[in-house]
Here is the input.
Amino acid sequence: MRIVLISGIVFVHIPFDAANSAFNGTYGIFDWFRVFLTEALFRVGVPCLSAISGYLLFRSGLESFSYLKTVRTKSQTVLLPFLLWNSAFFLAIVVALGFGLGNGYVPDPWHATARDLMTQLFATEDFPVNVPLYFLRDLFVCILLSPLLAWLIRRVPLLTLSVLLVLALVPELSLYIVLKRSILFSFSLGIYIGLYKIDLKALDRYAPVGVALLLASSALLATIIYLTGPSMPDWVQLFRNTLAIVGALGFWLLSALLIKTQIGQRLSKTGSLSFWIFCAHYPLLLFLWIVWGKGGVSVYPLFFLGSLALLFPVLAVSNNLCRTIAPRLYATLTGGRTKKRTEAPATAATISSEFISQRR
Here is the structure.
């Protein structure tokens, strides 16, 4: 499911400006479809990935869990790639702005305060310059907290998950320790599933119903957001936050259907490509957006569809080139995710007014 979820996250980060906001209604059904994909359906990606991560960490129980070993390993597989990918993009921005390129499209480190620079580089208070990488930052924080979370879930599971769920759902609430509250809850839910040996296939027979409910709920939410956005009432934000978490179950059930298909089997063997796509897609999308802005073409659907048509082939080719030409660098950039998986797929385991990025 990682490659599917991460591919969905790509849709969320396709850039647009105020003139091409979906809420202008310029392109009718196409704009509604954008809202459906970016504000509803694919918002489940981060919570679902977080739950998978929590589950994989504790699926063997507390007895075999070594905190120091885990932190050491995750520093290489999560923290180091975050620092490398984000720092590389930060340096690229510094150089580009130094030559007068990219003004209005990216944060300006040249005129940022020290506090802003810390955020741009390390996501201390807000999203980093490579926006989707906030997920790696929050995931590593959850890993640091994992012994405490596991202890609470072992002793008071219902209370722990209930409190974290409420914190995740309340609109406009800041926890500070994580940038995305749904990650903390979903990661803890994954710990619960792992520690209590919940059968991951228990609901597989309801997969068609679950997927249909996910699509119907996403369509309903998209319609409400399309009619009320971009400034949404609190009850709409609550609905959106709820679907992002509950909808993860619908996406998980999708795997029961997908794995039975030929394309599903191929996707389950993509390995490190999903991580490469996750880390590299945002800078490439920004580059395409800047080039598009210089072209003088104003039909936004052409950019939306064209960027997707270019993005995935370029990322696939660059992934293979780096893996072939510089295997050590590739291993570092992907956190050592170069070994082919042998597990069953079910257990294999994210500005200026001129630029608006849907930062999810």
